[in-house]
Design brief:
With 245 residues, this protein is an alpha/beta fold. Helix content is 42%, strand content 13%. It contains eight helices and eight strands. Strand 1, helix 2 and strand 2 form a beta-alpha-beta unit. The longest helix is centred in the N-terminal third of the chain and has 21 residues. It is globular and about 110 Å long. Bound molecules: nickel (II) ion. The site of nickel (II) ion has 5 residues, from strand 1.
Amino acid sequence: MAARHWNWFWLGVAVICAAVFLLRPQEPPKVIQADSAVKVAEPQPKLLALTFDDGPRRATTAKLLEGLEQRGVQATFFLIGKQIEGNEDLIRQMADSGHQIGIHTFDHVELRNLSPADIHRQLDPTREALRAILGDRELLLRPPYGFVDDTLLQQADSPIILWSVDPEDWHDRNVQREVAHIVSHVQDGDIILMHDIFSESVDAALQVVDQLHQAGYAFVTVDDLLLSRGITPETGKIYRHAHPD
Ligand code: NI
């Protein structure tokens, strides 16, 4: 009889073990390897476009280009026509590094309240000078001070790029304040306005890149920002940002 009891004992042990096995907590799904045939949807990267107006200015623009190159960052430069001559090598370097180039008038004048002829006197020679260096290409327009009227919309011959974050870097030229302003105001899809004619702005921009890289942002040209959000820039239309829907 004792042997029979032991059989029941071991049967009970086996049943309990089976139950424990079957009821064991399930492992969480494995993270799928990058080379796996099955891909998980990757989160959309947070994107920003750094834009620089009023250049080129050799002393500051060259330093900025070097800093952006070291960080693998692409930006957008809105250039002043009368500053192109003598800086052709810098402009070629911008294009070779993947930066986008746009125009910011020939003499840095307000384009609002100008006649069509006067608008073209500001835009056309700037466009021609840049195309002589870079070849035929689309050039975005940033009107000085962001001033736009209906005549400009009709005459621009370019998409018009404004901005959504403005640290007013011309105002006190304080690196720490500019960095703090940008870092605390940015959101995914912003276009940031800066000026590469100030050494403080160059320092601030590079610090911003370092801090926001750590926060998971990537920096792209205005075109790449807009296109990645399904926006194709159109002539005579205004763009301020590409926030996600
Ligand atoms: Ni300007």
